Structure formats: structure tokens, C-alpha cells
Amino acid sequence: MFKGKRIVDSYDSFYRKNKDRIFAYLLRLTGDYHLSNDFMQESFVRYFSHYHTTPGNNCALLFTIARNAFLDSIRKYKEEKFQDKKEVAWVSNPESQLIEKQALDKMLAAIQKLNSVDRELVALLATKTFSYKEIGKILNISETNVKVKVHRARLRLKAILKNGGQ
């Protein structure tokens, strides 16, 4: 028997041993027979395509992959549903569209009235990408100093907005 045949037999054995358990697990998560079957197949495909070594007894990894396939699907569904609602609301209500645009314009104008350091801090925070520590490294100031400056920038921004953008 050549090596390729043993690997195929090993994968086949691994699949037969775990398919019912993975399917039952996914059925409990989804409550849908067909969806569970799809996730089970996707899980094995991901497992076999990413982990080329002999499967052995790595059932925990297979369950993790199955769980992630399920969670990926939920995230994608929620994002699509959110985008659909957002588009419907945006298109169907011109008044709210105008109100949102005016609020955004007012906020952007107020941010432009801040000094350059405050504007940069607000811009970095608005990306929601960086922690205070990372912003401190970018601006070459301490994390504590970032927190103080952000607090003061927010107060100035609030005052500008309270005064009608002046």
C-alpha cells in the first residue's frame, strides 16, 4: 500500500468517526438540518485543506472549525441584514437623510475649529483602530497624556457644538 492511499484512508476514517458528532453539534447550534449539513461539509473541507498532515485525533480542532464556520455565517447574515435595513432607511426617509447629513456637517465643521493636536486625537480615536497607548506612541506622548488631551478635546468640541459651531 502506498503512502497516498494510507492518507486517504486516514482522512476517510477521521471523517466517518467524527461526521455524526459534528453534525449533531451543528444541528444543536442552528436548529436546521440542511444548514447543519452544509456547515459540517464546510468544516471538513476547511480542516482537510488547511491541515495537510495526517488527521490523527484532532477532534477539538475540527469542532473549533465547525463553530467558526457557524459564527462566520451569523456575522455575515447580521452584516447583510444591517446593510439592508440601513439602505432601506436611508432611501425611504429623505428627512432623516437630511438630518443626518446636517449633523455630520456640523460635527465636521466643529472638529475643524479644534487645534491641530486635538483634531489629530479625535481623528485617531474615530478610526476605532488604536488604543490610547498606541495613539501615545504615534504622537510620541504618554498614554496618560493622551487620556487628558482626549478629555480636554472632547470638552472643547462639546463647547463648540453647544455654541452653535462658533
Summarize the model shown.
This protein has 166 residues and is mainly α. The protein has helices at 3-30, 33-50, 59-92, 94-112, 116-126, 132-139, 143-162.
SSE blueprint:
Elements (H helix, E strand, L loop, with lengths): L2 H28 L2 H18 L8 H34 L1 H19 L3 H11 L5 H8 L3 H20 L4
Helix pairs in contact: 1-2, 1-3, 2-3, 5-7, 6-7
Q: What is the level-2 CATH architecture name of the largest domain?
A: Orthogonal Bundle
Shape label? elongated
Number of helices: 7
Question: At the third CATH level, what is the topology name of the largest domain?
Answer: Rna Polymerase Sigma Factor, Chain: A
- Which structural category fits the helices and strands? mainly alpha
Number of domains: 2
How helix-rich are the residues, as a percent range?
Answer: over 70%
Largest sheet: none
Q: Spans with pLDDT under 50 lasting ≥5 residues? A: none
In the CATH hierarchy, what is the class of the largest domain?
Answer: Mainly Alpha
Let me know the average pLDDT: 79
Q: How many extended strands? A: 0
What is the beta-strand fraction?
under 5%
State the separation between the terminal residues, measured CA to CA.
83 Å
Q: CATH superfamily of the largest domain, please?
A: RNA polymerase sigma factor, region 2, helix turn helix motif
Helix/strand order = HHHHHHH
Computed Rg: 26 Å
